[in-house]
User: What shape does this take?
Amino acid sequence: MPNNAVAVNGAKRDAERAGVTNMGFNLAVRKLTTKKFVRVEELWDERDGESYNGLAVDEDGWKWIEANESMFVLHRQDKKKEEDIPF
Assistant: This one.
């Protein structure tokens, strides 16, 4: 959802799976927060009663995303079903 934050650790894991290094992730977050494209939020885990950091896209970030929407992949091609494989 547009105003929801994601856990920093989860975002970092996803970035690493996409090939971004730890330093690359930290540099990106620093640049994005400096430009006010993302903000760091304190999130609360009700089960454990502990807080943790989250990242959320800020208003300037959404404006940039909307202005550059054509740069994003918005739809994936359907994967072929196993029965569609010709061997």
Observations:
- The mean pLDDT is 90.
